[in-house]
Specification:
InterPro entries: 6-blade_b-propeller_TolB-like (IPR011042). It comes from Virgisporangium aurantiacum. This is WD40-like Beta Propeller Repeat. Keywords: Membrane, Transmembrane, Transmembrane helix. The chain is an alpha+beta fold. The protein has two domains: 56 residues, no CATH class; 225 residues, Beta Barrel (Lipocalin), CATH 2.40.128.630. The chain contains three helices and 23 strands. Strands 1, 2, 3, 4 and 23 form a five-stranded antiparallel β-sheet that branches. Strands 5-6-7-8 form a four-stranded antiparallel β-sheet, with no helix packed on it. Strand 18 and strand 19 form a beta hairpin. Helix 1 packs antiparallel against helix 2. It is elongated and about 160 Å long. It starts with a helix and ends with a strand. The relative contact order is 0.11.
Length: 323
Amino acid sequence: MTDLERLLRESVHELASEGRPVDLSGPALRRARRTHTFRTVSAVSAAVIAVLLVAGIATAVRLSRADEDPPPADGPPSPTVSSTVPTTESATESAGPRTPPITLPGGWIIRAAPHNNDYGVVVYDDATGRYHRVGYTATALPSPDGRYLAIMGQDVLAVKAADDEERVVYQRQFATRDVRPVWSADSTHLAFVTYSPEGAKVRVAELPAGGETASEPVNCPDGCMLKWLEDGQHIRVYTGSRRAEVTVRGGAVGAPSATPDDPCGSTVRAFRVDNSSWLCVTSTGFAVTTSGGTVTKRIPFPREIDGMPIATDSVNFVLSRQR
């Protein structure tokens, strides 16, 4: 029995008990409509609740999967490329702190010194700010700027780059003798002496171009000493007590000079401190003298530089102006 039939029957019984005729269709239809409306609302409400429940469950599932953070199906994400250039330590920083060069009066520094207990010389490198040993023979003569090494062999003079022993900047074959080559103060010229049947000649090599200038024969039978003059244009040639001046550019040789010698004498190198004093390299150390030759201060050679032992050999001490 349906609800509609049950409602009709109940209405008939109620009317029959009251003893009056009524229209049975109206109340029954109204109740049926109310029942249908209630059921419709209930069904809609249930459907809405079901939809909300399903949506909530789906959301919870998505959140749970997001927490697990699985890799995507097409593999791990590619790394992010940064446009910022990473900073790197400079060669100077990676090599350690800089070491000030050993300074002498007049702004001169010890550019190079002979290494003790080993072949080679200790050279100050402006780029790194440190002294380092260069592994050449003990007779290698560094240029005042530390860039080149003049190496005198038995029958060859070679100039090599201090930072690359394989790179030869200049080379000349000749019968060498005990005449020490000398660098100009600006490290652009190297003077040396060659011997031939026509006599000894002072030659000047221009570096790094490699050009060469030769003088007329000079008096240097058994060895002599060369000294660059301050003007950078002349070289003084000492043979015992006699001396002559050689012009660097042009190759002319002057007569024995009558000009007074510098206060350091003819057997050591001289560097001007100021207008009234000189810095001399002696056999035991450095000496500051007046223009008249009076010694006002003596500075012994260092026994070690940057932890490296130094030989007290005045020949291989090289001075240069601090830049």
